[in-house]
Amino acid sequence: MTPTISAVGLTRRFRDQTALDDVTVDVEAGAITGLLGRNGAGKSTFMRLVTAQEFATGGSVRVFGEDPMENDRVLRRMVFVREDQVFPDLKVRQAVQAASWFYPRWDAEFAETLLRDFDLPPNRGVCKLSRGMRSALSIVIGLAARAELTLLDEPYAGLDAVARQLFYDRLLADYAQHPRTILLSTHLIDEVADLLEHVVMIDKGRVVLAAAADDVRGSAVTVSGPGTAVEHFVAGRRVLHRRGIGSRVSVTVADPLDAADRARASTLHLKLEPLSLQQLMVHTTGDESAEEPRKRATA
To answer: Does 210 share its domain with 196?
Structure first.
């Protein structure tokens, strides 16, 4: 299947920094992909390049097989919801109505349902909404658009835990009924982990991991126990993190363990704990012992 987004050597440099550095990655069609990384890693820059809001310094990006820059045929098939979304001086209902003009697959009934779900006052001016309400309004537009490519860049700024869970529930339910490609940028990784089918992890402008989420879950394991036994067990494995307290040692390794490995760990009285996606990101992007980022990857 042709990927919805295909970036090859994509680079974006500013005067004093490189926001994206030779990124080559595919985002598969008809799946929810998590774009993960620390603040400033390059996630938002990647999305702005995909949506033709910035020019690349080098490389290329294709959306639906075409260059998105000044390409109305491509741009009308996507919706981009940003954390810092800016709205004109309109009332909530007017903003929703105006959005409906731009998206061919807009579902007005679904938009009304979402307005009620998030308890948004339709006749209140957008400028008078709280930060959380503005985020909820952005989510309403992003979901009701039902665009073939939906990009959500930290869309829940200001939402409390209850509202965020409502967003996740509505996103997943509507995606199940109306499949499309969704790229979700987030730092609340554990909250969305169960939604993700693919993962693209960016650190310092480079892709350090791109894989199916099921392949990533449990791919890294923390081994803890007596120091000598742990070091013997992890010998030859790729170490992401090491910590010692007295005679006990805790080592995180990136290689998956098979049944024989687990039996051996039991014999050595070692404790095995799989890493969550968020823990894996912390160790992969924040530890000097992590391996060099891969330049080419496919999600």
So the answer is: yes
Judge contact between 277 and 193, C-beta under 8 A: yes
What range does the domain containing 254 cover?
221-274
Instruction: Give Dmax over CA atoms of the chain in angstroms.
Output: 67
Distance CA 164, CA 177 (A): 20
Query: Which segments in the chain show pLDDT lower than 50?
Result: 287-299
Is residue 67 located within the same domain as residue 141?
yes
What digits encode the pLDDT tens for the residues 53-87?
999 999 999 999 999 999 999 999 999 998 778 88
C-alpha 190/C-alpha 205 separation (Å) is 22
Cα 56 to Cα 17, 67, 152, 222: the distances in Å are 14, 11, 20, 39
For the stretch 156-190, pLDDT in tens is 878 999 999 999 999 999 999 999 999 999 888 88
Listed in sequence order, the residues at least 6 apart from 118 whose beta carbon sits closer than 8 Å to its beta carbon are 133, 136, 137, 139, 140, 163, 166
Count how many domains the chain has. Answer: 2
